[in-house]
Amino acid sequence: MKLVSRFALGVALVIGGGAVVATSPAEAKKKQEEPAKPQLQISKEERAALMPLQTAVTAKDWAAAQAALPAAEAGATSGDAKRYLGYMLLQIGIGVNDEAMQARAVDTIIASGTAPAADLPQLYSNQAALAMRVNPVNRAKAEAAFTRLLELTPNDPEVLVNLAKLKTEMKKPQEAATLLDRAIAAKKATGQPVDVSWYRYGLKIAYEGRMAPLALKMSRDLVTAYPTKENWRDSLLIYRDLTNLDKAANIDLLRLMRATNSLSGERDWFELAEALDNGGLPGEAKAVLESGASQRMVDLKKPVFAELLRTTSGRIAGDRASLAGAETKAMASATGQLALSTGDAYYGYGDYAKAASLYRTALTKGSVDASTVNLHLGMALAASNDRAGAEAAFRAVTGARADIAAYWLAWLSQRA
Fold it and tell me: Residue 284 belongs to what domain range?
């Protein structure tokens, strides 16, 4: 994400019988094939003041050119004359490698008010880049130039990123993060891939600025575009840090971390297994411990894991034996609460079809948090490979759990 730094103005300005072309060498050949620019409207007096400067510039006699500058500057009073003067200043600045003079030249061209509209984007781009290099401490001029450039090219991803970088350096994180979000959307609209650094840069700014809604959106965009386990872990931990999760919601978050292979280290696996066991789901807790062990993320010989495995295993027989009766009571209950808890138990034992049926019963009976039920229904249907049903359930989640449902949807979109 570097600021532009090369000239490509390519405008031929003619007075008298000579011409000065302010352009980079790479542009010269291209410009020769283009229609000639109309001559400038410069008075006889202005032409007389400018001719010595043009002669010196054409000869690349930079010492003579600089000596002729004062008279040329004093004599150039009209907009066209000032623009012509600006392009000759630019040639001198390039010739003597003086970026301060190059910046002055671009400022002069813009201030003339006569630069062709087609040249303005490159002019403002160069004005911003030169302002940053000539006086990096004072970023206000570069900010103004990039802001004007953005007005001219509102959907240019690179301009958006450059201005975002500048806003960050100027301690304007809210504006920077919003610009990065726009840049990502603009880049996507071109059909080209967005570099992962854009997502991470925008997410970093939004997270450090505690801009929760934008940070969560950008974190989901990140894992949608680049669904690595590292990105999933970072995104979900950011979600947890920016959101006040209750115990049940934290379990759902950890479940998603497990689904995305972003649980990392024994601590994560133990946290999920312990939370499930404390939540009355010993079957799922045991499954998590055994899965962690099979992936060599958990050592079941360690006392803390061995004890947790022992206690969960000891509860499973009685818990499973109670499920049939709990299901019968849930179907007869006036509310959906027992259907929800029984569905969670079946989910933990991997009976996703039974779990989904009970979740639907819970929704029908009511007196439960519909968003929690729909979230769990989506998880069960996803595990049953009912992608359409899972997507519908996740999209039905509203309120406090809508964000975690959106992450589940991002995960679901990546499944084959």
Answer: 227-413
Report the alpha-carbon distance of residue 88 to residue 94 in Å, rounded: 10
288 CB contacts (<8 Å, ≥6 apart)?
A: 258, 269, 272, 273, 276
Count CB atoms within 10 A of the CB of residue 204: 18
371, 249: one domain = yes
Position of tokens 């054409």?
58
Q: Are residues 98 and 246 in the same domain?
A: no
H or E element in which residue 244 lies: none
Distance CA 157, CA 201 (A): 14
Dist. CA 162–CA 366, nearest whole Å? 52
User: What pLDDT does 39 receive?
Assistant: 64
Among residues 343, 406, 323, 401, the alpha carbon closest in space to that of 369 is found at: 401
User: Is 166 in contact with 136 (CB distance < 8 Å)?
Assistant: no
Question: Which sign, positive or negative, has the C-alpha torsion 232, 233, 238, 244?
Answer: positive
Q: Clarify whether residues 103 and 234 are in a common domain.
A: no
Which one of 138, 163, 191 terminates a domain?
Answer: 138
Number of domains in the chain: 2
Q: How many angstroms separate the CA atoms of 361 and 355, rounded? A: 10
What is the rounded distance in angstroms from the CA atom of residue 339 to the CA atom of residue 412? 25
Contact 15, 84 (CB under 8 A): yes
pLDDT along the chain (416 residues), means of 10: 43 41 43 50 93 95 96 96 95 94 95 94 94 88 96 96 95 96 97 96 96 96 97 97 94 97 95 97 97 95 96 96 97 97 97 98 97 98 97 97 97 89
